[in-house]
Amino acid sequence: MNYIFDIDANFRTGSSLPSIEEHYSSIWKIAKFLEKLGFQLANWFPPADTAENSLLNAAFTETGPSAAALAMAKADKENQATDLRTLGVWNGTEKDGAMAYTATYNTGHFPSSLNFSSKNIQQFSDFRNVVKLVEAIVRIWKPMVVQIAPGGYLVQSVFPDRPGAGWMLYLPFNIKSQQVPEAAQVIEVMDDTGKKQLGTLLVSVEETFDVQNDAHIKKANAIETRLVDQDLLPTNSQFLERF
Prior knowledge:
This protein is of the alpha+beta class. It has six helices and ten strands; from the N terminus they run βααββαβββαββββαα. The strands form two sheets. Strands 4-5-6-1-7-8-10-9 form an eight-stranded antiparallel beta sheet, covered by helices on one side. The longest helix has 16 residues, at 20-35. The protein starts with a strand and ends with a helix.
């Protein structure tokens, strides 16, 4: 079984971009969370013109983004724009065990995004670790939607103009388990205080989601249909209007 999947979160930035320091600090928070799963903070690297040059500098320190990473980001002319900026890191491998993620901040009509990808990482064969990662993403960026699925799932989803349930789907409102009985787990995602619910994470299956498994596809499709029947899964254009 391959443990290959992507996490795609969409959120609003506001009328102006954060500083490069603030931007990099948000992605540092994900690295700090991943430390809890056994991924060392020192093993994240900023992008460069070659992989070899990237590996010369660690992206993070214990207290935040490294001076080298910030200097490289500020030297990149593409990061001088006032309406759009992308910063990201990777863990230095493109083979099994690869991880990379980017945060794109956009002040325009289209939402900002966090994109996380991983390839055959044992920790993520346990759905509970993926749930914890999604919860961390939600608390940092307060997204309007988060989709978690292997590549290739969306073409098998029921509604091409709506988010797909895939392995997991986060929506920014309260959904009860009775409303989606097809879901293996319906998880309330709380804020940092644990007192306010930010939204709901629907888990289609507890084992690793496989796009070649017809039962997995059927379960995710059933969740999508159930949500639409209850007007709980807006179209992509409706998400832009509502959030």
